[in-house]
Amino acid sequence: MAETQAPQIRRLVAPNPSPMTYTGTNTYLLGLRDIAVIDPGPDNDAHFAAIVSAIAPDQKITKILVTHAHLDHAPLARRLSAHCGAPIYAYGDSGAGRSAQMIALSAAGTIGGGEGVDYDFQPDITLKDGAVLDHEGQELIAIWTPGHFGNHMAFSWNGALFSGDHVMAWASTMISPPDGDL
Fold first, then answer.
1. Over the stretch 12-53, which tens digit does the pLDDT of each residue have?
2. How far is CA 132 from CA 45, 142, 165, in A?
3. Which of 14, 29, 48, 84 is the most buried (most CB within 10 A)?
4. What pTM does this model have?
């Protein structure tokens, strides 16, 4: 069941507790009529059903935003998009945003990495840093925030910042090259 976090902001927690996700991945629903979904989460039937059932008859999902291409944030995006017809927005695929140095190290095979990457992730619409989308008459701003992951984005809307895996209450964010890079 979706919990109200603030006016026009609800949260669902995916049933994927782990040391990396704590009690589960947060999925946010923004808006009153047109709903933007941030981080649909893992491809999990129960979580898919929870998102769909949280949408009232007078509401529709119009945007699906993904903070980054990890398996606990991105895979359900494609299935949700197929269900509701909303496009998927993100910085890019799982390789987008990697620095030249990390690309070279990865190609040389001198580092590991790649933990939990959704290599199949592909947005319908690629967002640049600072891109502004209209969502229910308010600016939804995409902010490229590499570090945890090269394609990591945060989203600002209605006085709230959705920081993906950059701010977590239970642990520090993980920086695992070549996807993570400070």
1. 999 998 888 888 999 999 999 999 999 999 999 999 999 999
2. 32, 6, 21
3. 14
4. 0.95
Query: DSSP E strands: which ranges in the chain?
Result: 3-6, 9-13, 26-30, 34-38, 60-65, 88-90, 125-126, 132-135, 138-144, 153-157, 160-162
CA distance 160 to 9: 9
Cβ-contact 41, 72 below 8 angstroms = yes
Helix (H) or strand (E) holding 133: strand 132-135
Residue 105 token pair = 């190290």
Number of neighbours of residue 112 by Cβ within 10 angstroms: 10
Q: Any idea how long the chain is? A: 182
- Does residue 178 have a cis peptide bond before it, meaning omega lies within 30 degrees of 0? yes
Distance CA 124, CA 4 (A): 28
Instruction: Give the chain's domains with CATH numbers.
Output: 3-162 (3.60.15.10)
